[in-house]
Amino acid sequence: MDEEKMKQAVKEALQSSKPRNFTQTVDIAVNLKNLDFKKPESRVKGDVELPHGRGKPTKVGVIAGGDLAERAKLQNLTVIIPEELEALRAEKRKARKLANAHDFFLAQADLMPTVGKNLGPVLGRKNKMPRPVPPVAPLPPLLARLEKTIAVDSKGKNTLHCLVGTEKMELEKLVENAMAIYNFVEKTVPKGTENIASVYIKTTMGKPVRVM
Questions:
Q1: What is the pLDDT of residues 94-144, one digit of tens each?
Q2: Which H or E run contains 6?
Q3: 60-146 homologous superfamily
């Protein structure tokens, strides 16, 4: 991918986007081709650390008890204690609302089987299964990394979408973030560029601009 093409597309997407009464995200869409999406190896999935961050706060939920739960509360994070998991399993709407309100989840490692049983169907579908952490794990380094992380998942489809930043970020930083996503996809698919049909950049409410 020619970085200059990406730069021109991001620039055009920003310039053509009408002002809104909220900060729009800048997103990338990569269309895939020549893949059998029934095969696991054709699924593009993984975490990408954006060089310049997401440009917006990352909302993290923590599933834990005891000391880890208390430390998470001190970080002003949403805390789901073990006793709430079974109730969430029964209240699907509440579980979906919880999933939609957060970008990532962390879970006390020994609770992962219980989390999978009760929230797996909801979180798994949204590619938001918790990252397991030991009960004594320090939270600040984990949160700092998540502030820059994007979870990429094609979900067995021929198109994947994800955020690369917001319209308030500098052009060069958005371009580098977009290239990080593109390079990840190119390295993940079996045949590299042969499996990429097209790439688009757009703002939340703007029209897509083709990169390639």
A1: 999 999 999 999 999 999 999 999 999 999 988 899 999 999 999 999 999
A2: helix 3-16
A3: Ribosomal protein L1/L10, domain II (3.40.50.790)
- CA dist 166 and 54 (Å) reads 7
Closest CA to 185 of 153, 157, 211, 155: 153
Other Cβ atoms closer than 10 A to 90: 9
H helices of 33-160, where? 66-74, 85-90, 92-100, 112-125, 139-146
What is the pTM for the complete model shown?
0.88
CA distances from 68 to 107, 145, 179 (A): 9, 18, 36
- Spatial separation of the C-alpha atoms in residues 154 and 29, rounded to whole Å: 10
